[in-house]
Known about the structure:
Elements: H1 2-13, H2 17-34, H3 36-53, H4 56-72, H5 76-93, H6 96-112, H7 116-133, H8 136-152, H9 156-174, H10 179-191, H11 195-206, H12 215-231, H13 235-252, H14 255-271, H15 275-288, H16 295-309
Helix pairs in contact: 1-2, 2-3, 3-4, 4-5, 4-6, 5-6, 6-7, 6-8, 7-8, 8-9, 9-10, 10-11, 11-12, 12-13, 12-14, 13-14, 14-15, 14-16, 15-16
Amino acid sequence: MDDIEAIRQELTAVEEPEQRLELLFKLSAIYWRTDQKKMLDVLKEALEIARDTDNKPMLVQAIWHMGSCYRALLKEELAYEYFMEALALALDFGLKEKQSRILNSLGVLHQNTSKFSQAIDYFERARAIAAEIGMQDIEALAVNNIGVCLHNLGQYSDALRYYLESGKLYEKVNGRPTAHVIKVMGSLALEIGDTESAIKNFLHVLRLPEMQENYRERAPLLTDIGSAYLSRQEYDLALKNFEQALVLTELAGDRYQTIILYCMMANLFFETGEFQKAWDLLQKAELELEESHPAYLESMIYLFKGVGFK
């Protein structure tokens, strides 16, 4: 990417620590959307500079972002350790905005492992601090994430209430609901069987300018669109979206989403009677688990294996 090359060229000419930190965080933000493994290398340098210069806010940010990287790479224990270290430092330094953001990340970590009650606790704490300091964008994110947890627990009316509250908070900040709010409304529509509304919402988000080079966010959207088409037994369209999503997840190094896609594609092939293709994909999913073995993804693979035995 041109932006990456431009920042890297600037880094070769800059020695002043504060300027290097600023450039490194710009670079890591691009890699967050495109390649988490490369982001990790950039953050390690930022972390070293922040420690050497005693830059407290940047130190907290580097440790927090390291946790986010490890979460994306399915290293949940490492992610938790980095998040807790970052939170402890943010509390010591009195950095309330960072506290709220890190608590939200801890909530997402627990949400991803289906520990929804613990996730909600973290999101509520994040929300309270954000409201206290008037950071409506962080408050909106925490409120939305509570809705996602309730959605996963099957409490759809409560989830919708939180989604709508989140949308109103985002409108106060941005003048319109964010892509994330539109996406979760699409997810809720898909859950209740309204595939037409779901696809409409997902496509709306997919076409937004900020989504065009955001591999990390485009892939789940394409997966959701594929899921909607799969539920309608429109197999060609479902597979097309799954395959497009898989290309992006592999580019971004997002193992979590890659495993989900292998399972979704396997499910499609079971439905179309292409059993060997389905088993091959589930085997690929198991190979992705070799390093970290997150139990919730392992159980998903076994679930789809069960589909194949029906």
